[in-house]
Each structure stands twice: as structure tokens, then as C-alpha cells.
Design a protein that fits this description.
The complex is a heterodimer of chains A (278) and B (366). Chain A is mainly α and 278 residues long. Chain A contains eleven helices and no strands. Chain A is globular, with a radius of gyration of 25 Å. Chain B is α+β, with helices and mostly antiparallel strands. Chain B is built from nine helices and 20 strands. Classes of the chains: A mainly alpha (278), B alpha+beta (366).
């Protein structure tokens, strides 16, 4: 390697490099602290016997978990949340796949307007969207139902599914589908035998991601769900009433569930990146 | 042998304002290896896609085995295509790729497997049957793609520049694989390419296309030695094209007066029915192939000769091309064997003389 800089300049350079490296590391650590410290505290206090979140900690306990285990409201909320997130994932991913495929396959007038409209929902402030949903659902007599939450969540999350699947479709060789027709596959058969298998990692990724978003979503669920509370809505109601460490326990479980879902989605996302880069 | 398997009748294809195929009339015989050759945008790939049903003709009719194919969907045809991109399915292994066509015909899994293996064997890639296609080399993928297209035992195989992504030495090898396969199977190959060497090396008959029309169709030798028009003469390459006015015209030859000299050109060609009748005073264009020109340093005694100066030379192994220029600025190309060049004193300054037998010249009728 050729290096023409003078020795003292080199030393300076090295020191600058060192400073830069460490300030970047500090910055990253700071970000993680800000993101995860509250969650870590919540997890710690969920195992703490004290009623109020204070330091020093008292003794280790599973009391709060026992409380929520015995609480039928909590069970009901989890049941609702699971129904909502699973249905939302299925509907949103189906919708997402269909829009992504239309974008991939067809050319038509106002296509960019169509795409902009499809991608719009996540850019609307949640509170506005929630209010609008509530107003609309009560107009058509559909508010306060579990499926109203499912519809609202599907609208919110379908764009994410579409974006993920569209990325994958754009990596597909344009000849692949034609090759399937050429070898005797009807359009539906080619969809089943070529397009789906090719998009499978993206479809799975979209399913898990939309499920996670729906499982965590609070604002819309709070406005639309009525008596069918989902977990985030239940948490707010508990906190509104009094300070109760069982929210920490519920929070810990919710955090675990959504982290798992997002992580599975990530695994599928990166699996497919690696596959295509080979 | 001479029953046409494929017939194009006044076929045209437009994409909006763009005319891909202007007017196509072509009959392809059963068992023929036909190459459709031309520069990009000449309509050769569109022609092939219309045969596969991937594009519908805007006008005219296409028949395969006497059946009108215009409205037959791609998957209802038996016209497998070997894609330029190969279009192997990346989520299937080599054997599953080959099985695909049989699976779509709802064949039994056992039969599918054994037929696929048979074809992979035949093309010499059986050992890679269970490998992911992404891990195979270009040549191996090529063979898998061929096996996938042939496994359904079609009467007609379409090939769209299948060798364009391969290394030069692999191209030569695959050319012989393809010609041998075609002879053995006795089926019709329609081969689209921009490469003259591929077309000439393999095809029984070559169709040269230009701007959506057939510029010339014939056996490789005729395309090469007797181009029908200026486009073919230029596309086939290494031709010297000379234009002038006819001084005298008789039964056998025309005397052409061009800026750099006067030349005798024979009027007869292999295609007398389409030949144009020339008379004195007409504009005449003729070609003299670069490999039929002699080059000397002393003025030859023959009639057809020109004086030139050497501009540059191009060495491609056994052959050398000399680029020369006449006093009026016309460029000439001369192709000779490398060992011939060593007998020619080409390094000293001064004039070069080009000459040719008058019956080596070929008059253009189009």
C-alpha cells in the first residue's frame, strides 16, 4: 500500500479516525438505550413485588402474571387481538399481493395515481383515520364489532404487504411467467406454480409484519372496537383506572409477541435477499 | 419433407404506433432448421413470439400444421421456446425445471421423473439433476433449458438467441449440440439470432429481416455470396459495395462506370425470376466480397482493378482484414489468410492494387 502522508499527519488521521469510530459507537448505544430502556424497565418491574415502580427493587415475584392469568378480561382481550391480527394479516396480504401483481403485470392510465392511492393509508395520522373510521362505521351501522377493527386494520396494513411483495416481484425475470405459459400452464396455473413460489418468502414476511402491526395498533382499535377490547385498548383502560403492575406483565407479553412476529418477518425478508444475490 | 409446418400469411404486428412486423409471408418446412437473422428491432423476436402465441398478430394469419393459430392461447400450443434469458425457475432444481412441462400436462410423477432424467442424460447434465439452477454454469443452464423445452417431444422448437450469453468457445460447442439434436430428432427448429456465424453454421435456410420485412431468404451460401439487396450485403458484412452507371448491357454482363474505375459485372444470379433487367444509363450497385479480392503491389493486367492506399489492418487469428482507400475516398476491405499476408510486402509505402475475377462480382437487384 502506498502512503505518502507525513508521520505526524498520519498520527492525526489515526486519532480522528479513533474519535469518529467511538462517537459513532456511542451514538448507536444511545439510540438503543432510548428505544429499549423503558421496555426493559417495564419487564423488570413486571417481576417486582412492589406495587409502585420504585428503585430499589423489592423481591422477585410472579404475582402479576398470576393475576392476569386469572383475569378473564385479559384472556378475552388476547383472544380478540389474535383473531384481529390473524384475519388482518390474511386480508391485508391478499390485498397487498393483488395490488403488487397488478402493478407488475399491467400497464394502464393513471397507474401512478393508483399506486399513490394504494400507498396512502399509512401516511394519514392515525387519530384522523380512527375518527374517520368510527364516523363511517357508525353511519353504515358497523361500528363496535370485532370485524370493524379487522377491516380498519386491513386498510392500514395492506400497503406494507404490497410494498414488501412488490419489491420481490420486481426481482422476477419478466420471462418467467411467459415461460410457464409456454410450457403449458394456464394463467391461473402459472400463478400457482411460478408467481406464488417465487414470492413465497415475501408473502410470509408480509403476513408476519401485518400481524405484528395489527397486534400493536391502539388508536384505531380504541375508537372502533367498542366492547370488543383488544390488548392495547385493555392496557390503556387498566392504566386509566389506577397504577397496577399487571400492565407491566401484559406489556412484557405483548412485546415478546410482536418482537417474535417482526423477527420472523425479517428472517424471511433477508433469506430471500440472500437467495437472489447468489 | 416439403410440407410446410408453419405458414405466415400477410402477418403484421403493431405495438401502438410502432410497427414490429410490417408484412411477413413465410413457409417453414417440417424438419427444417431455419434461422431468422437481423439487427435488433427488425422484428425477428416478435415473429418468434407470435409463433409461441405470446404476441397476437395485428393482421394476417399464422398456421401451424394447417391449423389457424391466431386465437390459440400460449398454453394450448406445443411450441416450447428456449429463452434468451433461459427463464429457468429459480425455486426449482434442474430436474424439476425439466419436469415442468410434463407436470402442466398432468403426467404421472413417476413418468415425469424418468423422462426428465432421460433428457438431462441426453444433454450430458444428469449429474446436476438435484442441483439448484443458480449454482450451475452458463453452459449447464443452457442444457437444462434445452431439456426443459424438448421433454414434451414437440414438433417445433423455438430458440430466441439462446447462445448470446455464452463464452465464444461454448458457443461453438453448443452449435454442434444443437445441429446434432435437430438432425437426430428431425423436428423443426426456428432459431432467432443477430449473429451471422450462428445462423450460417447451423441453419438449412436463413431468413434475413429488416424493418419488419424479409430482406432475403435462402440457403446460407446464397445469402453470403449473392445478397439480394444493399441491406443484406451490408449486414452480412465484409462486402465491398460499389455503385455506378451502366455503360453497356449485354446478355451476360454489364459494364459499370464508377468513380474509381470501370468494371464488368455478370448479370446472372441464382434467382433469375426476381432479377431486374438493366439497360444502359441505369444506376447499378454491385458487391465484391472481401475474400474474393486479390491484393498486389504491382499493377495487374486484368480489367477489374483499382489503386488504393493502405489505411489499417485487423488481425483475427488465421484471417487478416486490410482496410484500404481509393483516391476518391471509397473504402475497400480485403480479407486474406494470415500466411498470404506474409508473402505480400505490405509494410513499405506506396500503392496497393486490388483486382478480382469479373464473375466474382455480384449485382444487387434490390
Amino acid at each position: 500500500m502506498r502512503n505518502e502522508t507525513k508521520p505526524h499527519a498520519q498520527k492525526n488521521n489515526l486519532r480522528n479516525q479513533f474519535l469518529l469510530d467511538w462517537s459513532l459507537r456511542f451514538y448507536v448505544i444511545l439510540i438503543f438505550v432510548f428505544v429499549f430502556a423503558p421496555i426493559v424497565f417495564s419487564v423488570i418491574f413486571s417481576f417486582n413485588s412492589a406495587r409502585f415502580p420504585t428503585i430499589p427493587l423489592e423481591s422477585f415475584t410472579l404475582k402479576w402474571y398470576e393475576t392476569i392469568w386469572a383475569d378473564p378480561d385479559v384472556w378475552e382481550a388476547f383472544r380478540n387481538s389474535i383473531i384481529v391480527s390473524v384475519s388482518t394479516a390474511l386480508i391485508a396480504t391478499t390485498l397487498g399481493f393483488c395490488t403488487a401483481y397488478t402493478d407488475y403485470r399491467y400497464r394502464f392510465r393513471f397507474k401512478s395515481a393508483y399506486l399513490a392511492l394504494v400507498l396512502l393509508p399509512p401516511t394519514i395520522p392515525l387519530i384522523i383515520m380512527a375518527l374517520a373510521m368510527l364516523a363511517w362505521f357508525s353511519k353504515i351501522g358497523a361500528s363496535g364489532q370485532l370485524w370493524s377493527v379487522i377491516i380498519a386494520h386491513s386498510v392500514l396494513t395492506a400497503p406494507f404487504a404490497m410494498a414488501i411483495i412488490r419489491l420481490r416481484l420486481n426481482q422476477m425475470n419478466k420471462d418467467l411467467e411467459s415461460a410457464a405459459w409456454n410450457l403449458g400452464a394456464s394463467e391461473w396455473r402459472a400463478m400457482r406454480e411460478v408467481v406464488f413460489p417465487f414470492c413465497k418468502p415475501a408473502i410470509l414476511s408480509a403476513l408476519f409484519l401485518t400481524a405484528a402491526v395489527s397486534f400493536d395498533e391502539f388508536a384505531i382499535a380504541w375508537f372502533v372496537s367498542g366492547l370488543n377490547k383488544t390488548v392495547p385498548v385493555l392496557i390503556l383502560e387498566i392504566v386509566q383506572g389506577n397504577i397496577d403492575p399487571q400492565v407491566n406483565a401484559i406489556g412484557t407479553i405483548v412485546f415478546l409477541v410482536s418482537m417474535t412476529l417482526v423477527m420472523i418477518a425479517q428472517v424471511f425478508f433477508f433469506l430471500r435477499q440472500n437467495r437472489t444475490s447468489n | 419433407m416439403n410440407t410446410p409446418l408453419v405458414v405466415f400469411e400477410n402477418v403484421a404486428k403493431h405495438f401502438g404506433d410502432f410497427v414490429a412486423v410490417k408484412e411477413l409471408n413465410l413457409a417453414i418446412n417440417a424438419g427444417e432448421f431455419i434461422a431468422i437473422m437481423g439487427p435488433s428491432g427488425c422484428g425477428k423476436t416478435t415473429t418468434l413470439r407470435m409463433l409461441a402465441g405470446l404476441d397476437q398478430p395485428s393482421r394476417g394469419s399464422i398456421y401451424i400444421g394447417e391449423q389457424l393459430m391466431n386465437d390459440v392461447r400460449p398454453h394450448q400450443r406445443d411450441t416450447p421456446l428456449v429463452w434468451q434469458s433461459l427463464a429457468l425457475f429459480p425455486f426449482l432444481n434442474a430436474r424439476e425445471n425439466v419436469e415442468f412441462g410434463l407436470k402442466m400436462r398432468n403426467q404421472d410423477a413417476q413418468i415425469r421423473r424418468s423422462k426428465a432424467m432421460e433428457w438431462l442424460e441426453r444433454l450430458g447434465v444428469a449429474e446436476f439433476a438435484e442441483r439448484n439452477v443458480d449454482t450451475l454454469s452458463g453452459g449447464q443452464r443452457q442444457r437444462v433449458a434445452l431439456a426443459r423445452s424438448l421433454v414434451t417431444e414437440p414438433q417445433l422448437l423455438l430458440l430466441d438467441e439462446p447462445l448470446s450469453a455464452l463464452d465464444a468457445h461454448l458457443v461453438i460447442r453448443m452449435q454442434s449440440v444443437l445441429t446434432q439434436l435437430q438432425r437426430e430428432l428431425g423436428i423443426t427448429f426456428v432459431y432467432v439470432t443477430h449473429s451471422q456465424s450462428e445462423a450460417f453454421a447451423m441453419a438449412d435456410r436463413v431468413v434475413v429481416m429488416s424493418n419488419g420485412e424479409i430482406a432475403q431468404a435462402g440457403v446460407p451460401r446464397d445469402i453470403y455470396r449473392e445478397p439480394a439487396n444493399r441491406f443484406v450485403a451490408e449486414f452480412v458484412g465484409r462486402n465491398n459495395i460499389i455503385s455506378g452507371t451502366a455503360n453497356t448491357v449485354d446478355e451476360k454482363s454489364i459494364q459499370v462506370k464508377a468513380p474509381m474505375g470501370t468494371f464488368d459485372v455478370p448479370t446472372k444470379t441464382n434467382t433469375p425470376d426476381t432479377d431486374k433487367k438493366f439497360s444502359a444509363g441505369d444506376m447499378v450497385t454491385f458487391v465484391i466480397a472481401a475474400d474474393l479480392v486479390q491484393v498486389t503491389r504491382t499493377k495487374p493486367k486484368t480489367e477489374n482493378s483499382v489503386e488504393c492506399s493502405l489505411i489499417s489492418e485487423e488481425f483475427v487469428g488465421s484471417m487478416v482484414t486490410l482496410f484500404l482507400e481509393t483516391a476518391d475516398g471509397t473504402e475497400f476491405k480485403v480479407q486474406l489468410q494470415e500466411r498470404e499476408l506474409s508473402t505480400l510486402d505490405h509494410t513499405t509505402e506506396g500503392a496497393f492494387y486490388l483486382s478480382w475475377q469479373s464473375d466474382s462480382a455480384h449485382v444487387l437487384h434490390g
